[in-house]
Amino acid sequence: MKSTREILEGVQSGRLSVDEALDQIRGLTVEDLGYARIDHDRVRRRGFAEVVYCEGKTPEQSAEILARLAARGASNVLGTRASAETFELLKRSVPDAEYHPVPRAIVVRRGPERQIGSVMVLAAGTSDLRVAEEAALTASVMGSRVERVYDVGVAGLHRLLREVDRIRKSRVVIVVAGMEGALMSVVAGLIDKPVIGVPTSIGYGAQLHGLTPMLGMLTSCVPGSSVVNIDNGFGAGYLAHMINELGEGAHGHRED
Amino acid sequence: MKSTREILEGVQSGRLSVDEALDQIRGLTVEDLGYARIDHDRVRRRGFAEVVYCEGKTPEQSAEILARLAARGASNVLGTRASAETFELLKRSVPDAEYHPVPRAIVVRRGPERQIGSVMVLAAGTSDLRVAEEAALTASVMGSRVERVYDVGVAGLHRLLREVDRIRKSRVVIVVAGMEGALMSVVAGLIDKPVIGVPTSIGYGAQLHGLTPMLGMLTSCVPGSSVVNIDNGFGAGYLAHMINELGEGAHGHRED
Amino acid sequence: MKSTREILEGVQSGRLSVDEALDQIRGLTVEDLGYARIDHDRVRRRGFAEVVYCEGKTPEQSAEILARLAARGASNVLGTRASAETFELLKRSVPDAEYHPVPRAIVVRRGPERQIGSVMVLAAGTSDLRVAEEAALTASVMGSRVERVYDVGVAGLHRLLREVDRIRKSRVVIVVAGMEGALMSVVAGLIDKPVIGVPTSIGYGAQLHGLTPMLGMLTSCVPGSSVVNIDNGFGAGYLAHMINELGEGAHGHRED
Amino acid sequence: MKSTREILEGVQSGRLSVDEALDQIRGLTVEDLGYARIDHDRVRRRGFAEVVYCEGKTPEQSAEILARLAARGASNVLGTRASAETFELLKRSVPDAEYHPVPRAIVVRRGPERQIGSVMVLAAGTSDLRVAEEAALTASVMGSRVERVYDVGVAGLHRLLREVDRIRKSRVVIVVAGMEGALMSVVAGLIDKPVIGVPTSIGYGAQLHGLTPMLGMLTSCVPGSSVVNIDNGFGAGYLAHMINELGEGAHGHRED
Amino acid sequence: MKSTREILEGVQSGRLSVDEALDQIRGLTVEDLGYARIDHDRVRRRGFAEVVYCEGKTPEQSAEILARLAARGASNVLGTRASAETFELLKRSVPDAEYHPVPRAIVVRRGPERQIGSVMVLAAGTSDLRVAEEAALTASVMGSRVERVYDVGVAGLHRLLREVDRIRKSRVVIVVAGMEGALMSVVAGLIDKPVIGVPTSIGYGAQLHGLTPMLGMLTSCVPGSSVVNIDNGFGAGYLAHMINELGEGAHGHRED
Amino acid sequence: MKSTREILEGVQSGRLSVDEALDQIRGLTVEDLGYARIDHDRVRRRGFAEVVYCEGKTPEQSAEILARLAARGASNVLGTRASAETFELLKRSVPDAEYHPVPRAIVVRRGPERQIGSVMVLAAGTSDLRVAEEAALTASVMGSRVERVYDVGVAGLHRLLREVDRIRKSRVVIVVAGMEGALMSVVAGLIDKPVIGVPTSIGYGAQLHGLTPMLGMLTSCVPGSSVVNIDNGFGAGYLAHMINELGEGAHGHRED
Amino acid sequence: MKSTREILEGVQSGRLSVDEALDQIRGLTVEDLGYARIDHDRVRRRGFAEVVYCEGKTPEQSAEILARLAARGASNVLGTRASAETFELLKRSVPDAEYHPVPRAIVVRRGPERQIGSVMVLAAGTSDLRVAEEAALTASVMGSRVERVYDVGVAGLHRLLREVDRIRKSRVVIVVAGMEGALMSVVAGLIDKPVIGVPTSIGYGAQLHGLTPMLGMLTSCVPGSSVVNIDNGFGAGYLAHMINELGEGAHGHRED
Amino acid sequence: MKSTREILEGVQSGRLSVDEALDQIRGLTVEDLGYARIDHDRVRRRGFAEVVYCEGKTPEQSAEILARLAARGASNVLGTRASAETFELLKRSVPDAEYHPVPRAIVVRRGPERQIGSVMVLAAGTSDLRVAEEAALTASVMGSRVERVYDVGVAGLHRLLREVDRIRKSRVVIVVAGMEGALMSVVAGLIDKPVIGVPTSIGYGAQLHGLTPMLGMLTSCVPGSSVVNIDNGFGAGYLAHMINELGEGAHGHRED
């Protein structure tokens, strides 16, 4: 990476010993908890701190990792699929942590307050809200202004059509839809901005826990869209923010 | 079935011997070719002659079965997925047979000419025409007036919206769509008539040879629709005619 | 749509301002609850009010949406997959709401009482009753007379054959079947009316939670049938009523 | 196995050296061609010679294996999925070999002529004949009398019902069916004999190259049946003969 | 069916009125409980009473159907996948009913005591016992003598090999196996009797709840076997008894 | 849409008759060829002309649609999955059409020459080039500067690592990968720009014609990425250009 | 097997009677508990005692089998997927049994203490620990020295790269990874030792309970790796030990 | 990696300039052909040159890459799935290249001749030879002594049992099997060496082009085995050699 040259120049000039250089090249920005290795370099490398996926971890593990990230203070901190129990544990050491029950997410605000551009989150039905809110919260915590238009599935197309002008004004659009997920194609056909499809597991039988809208969105007859995993509001919000940030214009590559 | 009573009364009155009655009950309307048993009772029972699915049969077999049905003359005769070779063989014995190359179908006109109500056939894209034409031909051969609106996929929604009035005036609507098949949901949401979805195998990758639009149509968020097999234009046209016929009003059950 | 002309003529004549016309074109018949946008235009457009799929919504959300639809009073109101808790909440504001525990559905009667034509509901086994009753209730609430013939699976074919005359007299037949779903093909082969197959998730192992009868019904060797999603009694009942209504004869398109 | 005692007694008595006994225990009835090990012990162990599945082998390999088995002369010899080219090669060394083009099988008659009991082969449609004939030929070559009833799919149920008496008189019934494969359940429900279902790949789309009838037959609501692989007429015929042979009454276990 | 002739002769001779004959032809042996139609003709037609699959039925429904079958007394009565609650309800009216907790089955003994031939039940592992016992109980209740060899999976092949002689002496062999189900192929290769494979859902991950051994058994390289649904011990036991009964020799078709 | 207000104001002011307004609202920008409806409004609505997917269309149909779009001259014209035969037909009427054989695409240059920002296309292996080149061509034809880094699969990670600086300097990255598709996750973890994954069908067996890398990319442990259909280089290039265009800074919504 | 010669020589020399020899050949090292046949020969044949998979067995069954194996004392004893209840039962008769709660395993130490070579266990994330620990414990109980490097998923590649030297020093590497499982390919590309991939079910949606990383690992673009079942830490540890043992150099085949 | 220290020490000592060091760190051992980046570092890193998978590459591309690798001369060179056309092209510049038609592989011998330990390749049937020979050739070209035992499928178990002693004497065993793949479990249960399963696509219907044996091998009830992709003889041979090499005893990690 870019700074490897600097490290080598440090060695050349004698400013760095070989061992110091080795450490830096190997990324000493990793904090080792035994069961986890926190990647504190991620803010520099990717623009946002490691996000903690709490499912499959014990509440103790999740809370400790979140606390360490918050202590670092390099950016806002986000934990997804977090239980209330994890939140209670975390609050003891990080009293200003927030819990968002609909998307089941924990936020600790440590980064600069920003509200750039705008990310539009559409949801086909009321049942898709949990996922839509995860997308909206993620983009917002990362620094995007977020707008929401919910329950505009294709069964009542005019509900969507009357919002088209507003949708077209955002920089990037997230479409959250279960059942057959047709909303994504319809939206993408009406606008000229990138569309991120989030299939949800809402439905039954042939819906196959979200595989059907996922496959449908991937084979959409409308270009200009792409797809994230089923129920992955987080991934959609993260990507939407990245795209939104590009729209800030003077944005170059991070390390310049 | 209803006529069983009549057969039994024939036996009671002595008009029928037991063996004659047995034959009738067992359906002597079957013509046995060894490799096939032609079901001549089907016109009485279902309102239309047996339709011959020519795939997997030798041209000789298909041509002979079609010729036998034509000879019976009880209704129009239809052969689907028929090769030109089958048609050439058939024409020797049935000179007025017709071949329709786009849907690869053979027709022999033997029934009354009818053009009842109307069946609307929509196709999402130009690539779906082969299936759409199979549906249109089937309904037409059975006696329905058929209208076609092609290439109205959701990528350019206004192409569809300007035809909505016309679509709403038909009795039943067939929607033929490949890719993700979103057109079916959109159409069903705009009208108050039964919609029959025909997923097609047009597409690639995650389209899974038509499984994706098939699953999508089955999990549509819009009620009032149902689905037939992938690329099954024939099945859709057949069902559409049946529904269309109901709209003729005074229609009772066939054998009364 | 048709009335767009009227709106434009209203603008031309000065009866409507541009803003009023915009609202009407954009469908101000939508009622926005934040988490839901109730589509009050649906009765005009599709002949029946929006049906509320209660799964994935909170009881509070379901109850409020149902209450709003009932208040509008434009047609009967139906909530499917509704919990008893949702019903208890709804009853506070809509005391005449009914709960049907077998299909887990809520009904509020606000439309005209009708019992047109007839819809026949067949169920292959006793275990399929929940789905069959959802189909029957839906068609009935929409205005169809409904008949039921249950437990007539192909393991004991004579149970079905003795009911064939009665089945043939209905306008449209719903076949509800789990296991391999063979009943649908057998029924469709015996009658001349549209058949709607409803695969159920009754079975285990290779039954794949209903995928097996769903695929089997879609590939039926008998034309004249189509298929709805697994366990989707509601969709079958809705479509059956639409088809049944066509049989009322003088029925034209809704807005004429 | 049973004869191990005999071998051991041979060693004990000095009739067999240890090395001879080892050879016998290890099955010196194997003939090694390098690319194949012909299992000449199979007649003793299973009652019929090894059957050669010719697909995936070169014609030379298939022909040589068949010739070796024929030379042994212990029972009839069967090669399935054999090309005409394989047959031409074989005929040079085995002039009395027969080729059956519909099931694409080679037979060399070396066993006793037998026609025990009876095996009934049903086929739902004309397109299923290739598989049905493979089943019929296999059972026949093994020594069963075979009867055939073809094109009796459930679309015209009376074609089947009139043959029920005849079907009931056989010892075991093979049902060959593509599409959704419903015929197997219907047949099994009408008789009191074992039914072997052979799903075929006839159909398209949701038929999934035979997976759909295979799954349907496995989840049949009618007990008394079991299933072999898609298009596996050979396997069905082989098993049917084994069952048929049990009906010969005095049949004990082979080596007694 | 065969007795149709007798009915017709009854009409011819005046012994039966037309209406009586119609009833008989239509199968008045059906007892209608509203939610179920008990098929009392099944003993005559198939040799054993309808077996009640209790899953998906309420305990009240299951218990009543079982009681009615027991009251008829035509053969032993079997209820599968039955809860203890169903059994408690049944015992009130049928005090001699038995509950078998491992296979979760209810038996009421009303038929003749028989122990014909023998059916061998093999299980690959201790975890497969529930399914193996369902197979063994079913065959036994129908009249077969049953032998069991359990925990002989291929991981320790010698456990199986030492039982081969005993296995070869039975008329038909059921192989119950989870994981990859290799035991069925190995057993079938060693004997000359029909083998019925029962894949079980024992395993995890790529075992796919039993689909993997099911597919493996269906594609076995060893002929002479066939497969029933995953965990379907009942179906295997039922079929095994049917086959075993054929071995009784003088057995003709049932109604002669 | 936005211009509806203008149309209405035209009617209000008398500039437009009602019929003229209806035509405009209904989108008279559609050109109807019978088998196709060319959506000339798409440039206005989406910023680029309709792209013609030539597979499944006859060469005559594809060539005519491309010629009509070229005649309109509103933007560059792109035909994907085009045969050389289609190109030969097109060249007769559009002599300056170009054929790109690796991605099998046709281009007619009619739009402004632009080379904005940059889109990076990575390919894991040499076998993925066809898809990578389709992506690169699409983005380029739409107006993006495109860079390529090919054959940097994870089997030799250092090939990728030495290009990371260059990759990080682009605005959006397309990763084309077959086999297991691991490259996408690795790339996304190293940069702070949006990543579009394109799974390819390169591989065999468990690769499932691209389903495996598609599923893998969708479940990537690295956020900031999304996925298009298997082998869909076109979709990736289209979306990448859209995102790249956002980076031009002052970009507002199109119709302002 | 090899010792068959010895047995035969025993018979030849008169040291063994035929019946004794039969018993030995048939493997009298099997201990029959009715529901289980303990394979005490396994230590001789495979180098380690039968491992007990406790899922699907009752705690009583598992505990008894483990106790019998421990009593034999031939090698360490391992029970996987064991409940605490099983452990409590076992401790009564085997007080020195150990319970490992993370991998849910029971160990009874009866074999020689060994710590040969080394097995490296990598885990992509904290959520994969349960499986990783099962692998580590298994290899360790069998006699391998085990090293662990956890939470080195590809999202932060430098966490892995800094451990490459250490990883390269082990004899065999187990990679435990959920999500898309890309870690296995990356690791295999960096080292020259056998890699065993263990896909885990950690993830959701398109991760398909582990099928996605399993398929991905199987289609890895990097040779030198192979795959065990989803979540099968035990299988990976077992195989890793076997491979590790080969590295002990003078190791010949067991029975020499 | 280890040599990074050396590079850094070179910089420190002035032996290397910063730019030279950067090149070395970034891996200048990559040779860039535009469409391919040849990884000449692979011999050092992994012990064997990059293997060229020729499918999906043009013959020109494959031949050039192979020629470059041969020119480097660092180890033997292997091209898999290579056409005769590729070989003809290659021979022009590399006259001593060999073509192996059964496994369709190209070999150029440039490494030291070795024949270490032994790798055993088993094939279940004659149809599996193409894959088995790819495995055998790969291991042999890498330096292993290879033994072959073919056509020992479980249908004739004694063919396998008589070879067990010989199999047990090898260091690692590859089992190549199509159909249901049961051979792998049986073999693994009999020996104490690592087993690598290679499922093949030999079979039809439920064999699912090899998915069925692949899933079966992954869920084998016998530990000590692992699985590579369907038909991936190359991957199995590569891994087998790696394991075999471990058995050479004094083998440490490569760079020491």
Automatic annotation (TrEMBL), chains A, B, C, D, E, F, G, H:
Pfam families: AIRC
InterPro entries: P2CMN_synthase_LarB (IPR039476), PurE_dom (IPR000031)
SMART domains: AIRC
Organism superkingdom: Bacteria
Domain PurE, residue spans: 117-249
PANTHER family with a match to the protein in the record: PHOSPHORIBOSYLAMINOIMIDAZOLE CARBOXYLASE-RELATED, SLL1489 PROTEIN
Name of this protein: Nickel pincer cofactor biosynthesis protein LarB
Protein species of origin: Alicyclobacillus sendaiensis PA2
Lineage: Bacteria, Bacillati, Bacillota, Bacilli, Bacillales
